[in-house]
Structures are given as C-alpha cells and as structure tokens.
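Run log, item B.
One chain of 110 residues. Sequence copied directly from the ordering sheet:
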Amino acid sequence: MGVYEKYKQTVNMSFSELLKWGATNCSKKASLNRSPIRRNLILLSKPKSKWSPVDIKNANKTIAFISRMKKVKPGKIIKGCGLSKRDISLKNWAYNPKKKIAQKRTKRKR
C-alpha cells in the first residue's frame, strides 16, 4: 500500500470538516500551532497525481502522529469544548476520534 492510500485510510475527516473545525476556538485549545491543520487541508484538497515529495513527507507525519496519539488515553475534558486535549489534537490532524465510521458492507458468498 502506498503512502496516499495509507493516509486516506488513516484520516477520517474531509476537507470541509477540517476547514470548519480549524475555524473554531476549540481547535486552538490543545496547540496554537496551526501547521497540522494547514498541511492536512493541502493533502485533503489534492488528488494523488498532484502529490509532491513534500506532500508524501507530510502525509507520513500525519499517519505517524495519529497512530501514536490514538494509543494515548483521552484525559480531562476541556470546558466548553466537550473534548480532551488529545481529541482536539487528533482533530487538528484530520482524525475525529468521536466520528462513527460506516461499516463497508460485504457480499456473502453462497
């Protein structure tokens, strides 16, 4: 599996969801650094054919961060946000830990 495919399997927020989230005050509660949001908005807006070596490097950063952070316990909820700093960080990296993932339906063989 290539980096593009692994990235698409790792993140679970769309460009519009991340853009909307990035405009909230809650998105600033875990970190004032906006670069993860900016990087992931760029990645989410480009088709695979337009990815550069820098995009691949940034996608690998996202994959690694989400993989590590998902293993961390959420911690205390931030007042007014309803999320922990861990969950806010994950959302800033294009992964919403509270988002339900639709199960792909598989056809049963008869």
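Observations after the first pass:
- The longest strand covers residues 77-78.
- The chain is about 45% helix and 5% strand.
Flagged for discussion on Thursday.
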